[in-house]
Amino acid sequence: MKPDLSHLITQNPDFADTIRQKLTAQHFMHHIGANLTVIEKGYMECELTMQQQHLQQAGFTHGGVTATLCDLVTGFAAFSLVAEGEAVVTADLKVSYLNPGDGERLIAKGWVMKPGQMLHFCEGEVWTEKNGKLTQIAHCTALMAVVKNLAKRD
């Protein structure tokens, strides 16, 4: 269930366009075939169609793919709240694996639980879809550090 995020305030009213522009430089995301499908203030969804390269030796989704999707959706959820010229980087990411990833498609959802001036606390989930049935395979928490004055850095 999507949390109520109406209390969140963005510092960039054009965050959706900014995110779409940033997506062009997300080379690893494109390499694995992940796509952001929902871009909202403090909330993101990402989908990935499963392929052979996403699987580990037993035929389930590799944990690194799951962790990557968690990082993507929580990171962009946090990014949607910062001012233009600022960025976020992952300070901490914890992924709890709940079920094997066995399906045709992965759906990741991420949101900001508590924004701060320096750190945004985020949560996320990854679901697998198989034959129309959704199963949650992971839950994550993330701390996203706000990087201020990005344009002034060397």
Question: Which helices and strands, and how do they pair?
Answer:
Elements: H1 15-23, H2 27-32, E1 34-40, E2 43-49, H3 63-79, E3 87-97, E4 105-114, E5 119-130, E6 133-147
Antiparallel strand pairs: 1-2, 2-4, 3-6, 4-5, 5-6
Please tag this protein with its features:
single chain; 154 residues; alpha+beta; Thiol Ester Dehydrase, Chain A; 6-stranded antiparallel beta sheet
Helix content: 10-25%
Instruction: Compute the number of helices.
Output: 3
**Annotated CATH homologous superfamily:** Hotdog Thioesterase
Strand order of the largest sheet: 1-2-4-5-6-3
- Computed over alpha carbons, the radius of gyration is 15 Å
The number of distinct β-strands equals 6
Secondary structure class reads alpha+beta
CATH class: Alpha Beta
On the 0 to 100 scale, the average pLDDT is 95
Q: Largest sheet, described in full? A: 6 strands, antiparallel
What characteristic shape results from the CA principal axes?
A: globular
* Strand residue content: 35-45%
CATH topology title: Thiol Ester Dehydrase, Chain A
Give a written overview of the molecule.
With about 150 residues, the protein is of the alpha+beta class. The chain has a single domain (about 15-150), classed as Roll (Thiol Ester Dehydrase, Chain A), CATH 3.10.129. The protein contains three helices and six strands; from the N terminus they run H-H-E-E-H-E-E-E-E. It has helices at about 15-25, 25-30, 65-80, and strands spanning about 35-40, 45-50, 85-95, 105-115, 120-130, 135-145. Strand 4 (about 105-115) and strand 5 form a beta hairpin. The chain is globular, with a radius of gyration of 15 Å. The N and C termini lie far apart (about 40 Å).
